[in-house]
Design a protein that fits this description.
Layout (H helix, E strand, L loop, with lengths): L1 H13 L5 H33 L1 H18 L6 H29 L5 H28 L1 H10 L4 H19 L6 H8 L4 H8 L12 H17 L1 H5 L4 H33 L6 H24 L5 H9 L6 H27 L1 H21 L6 H14 L2 H12 L5 H29 L4 H8 L2 H8 L15
Helix pairs in contact: 1-2, 1-7, 2-3, 2-4, 2-10, 2-19, 3-4, 3-8, 4-19, 5-7, 5-15, 5-18, 6-7, 10-12, 10-19, 12-19, 13-18, 13-19, 13-21, 14-15, 15-16, 15-17, 15-18, 16-17, 16-20, 16-21, 18-19, 19-20
Length: 475
Amino acid sequence: MFPLIGQPALKDLLGPTAPATDVTQWFGAIIAVFLVGAASGGVLFGWLGDKIGRVRAMALSIFTYAIFTGLCGFATEAWQVTALRFIASLGMGGEWSLGVALVNEVWSAKSRAVTAGLIGAAANIGYLLVAVLSMVLLSFISSAQHALAAIGLSPATVTYLTANSAWRLLMISGALPALLNFGVLLFVPESEKWKAEYARGATAHWERWDLLGVLIGSVAALVIIWAWSPDGAQRGINALSATAITIVGLGIALVGYLHPVRKYMHRAEAAGTLAAGRGKALIRLMLFGAALSSVALLGTWGSTQWAPKWVVEKLAPTTLHAKEWTLIWLSVGAIVGTMMAALAAGRFGRRITYCALCVTSIGGTLLLYQFNSSYTNFFLFCTFLAGTVTASFYGFFPLYLPELLPTAVRATGQGFAYNFGRIIAAVGGLQTANLMKHFDNSFPKAASVMASIYLVGMIIVWFGPETKDQPLPEH
């Protein structure tokens, strides 16, 4: 929701006299903190899913992200939104890891490409629904006010919930997915592959104290975010100091997030449930997956996700529903792109598909930001294309990452691989605001520079295995 409602929310929380630069920096910082939380949650809930089962851990992750998203609607300060979104993102990062692991283990190998595309498409249907919900609320704000008053809310409370584009009401609506838990616990079957690992004792090597590493890694990542935040700048942290903090912090975060998996593998090898030396090979695959994810996430969060904000600030500040239509066309493109990417990877192979996605993402981003200076139908067409290519990776990863790791560490391992990329995206995404300063507050130039990260992806993908037509690894 935040790319859509972040602007009115921050203007409300920071006050009408807050400089635009403060709003921009808080916007970037809150997104960055959300990404760090998702990275932490991917490992935390992935660990829980590998230890107690996919379904129970997934229900807890859904409850976490839903309830704490809803609580954001009652925040009175920007830092409160930041803290609540961090906790909510723990659940979101975990839900991705657990859901992808469960779907790949339950569905047949022949259906993996289709189901991977559906996972990516479904997430973007959520983005689409957020935009539609926002448009409905804005169009029928008076009706919503009457409805809230009719259920007994005071006029002050109704105004509180519906002021500033009804961002509080939208956030509160984010608690609704908590209701899904009844269906998850009653009707979703546990993975038979996980049950087999549980039966042979492979899940017994996870220890709760290992999660201290995740906590330390999270703190290190948050310190990096703070160093680049407005508060860090006010406390004398310059660009050179922030860079040094970033390098050290990323090293600590990497070690911390890997700690539970490394300890698990050490115990599993000692017990004979994991082949000797297998642990090091799996760590290398996790790092490879994290590198691929970092490229895609940085490309998205450093450029495309800022498009609604760019529209409402620069291109169409007075046009009704401009940011909603921008998000809608991004989402429609993403739905198409995720399905196409998964099917292409299933047909042509994983590495060549990822490389092609990088090439087209560069083209789509440059087309959007270098060939549009006003809000027109051509802009919306370019938004659709950019959404198609830059979001296509989120249909690719649910297919490829589970194929790299065995069942016993699949949820935790792919949780690390995908979600550690969020930390890189968080740090890199903060540089969008810094690049804007360098380019005289030009967001198109900054976003175009950020798109160069896809060149890195075109190279590193060839250092990983090709898994086309291979079964999921068991041990």
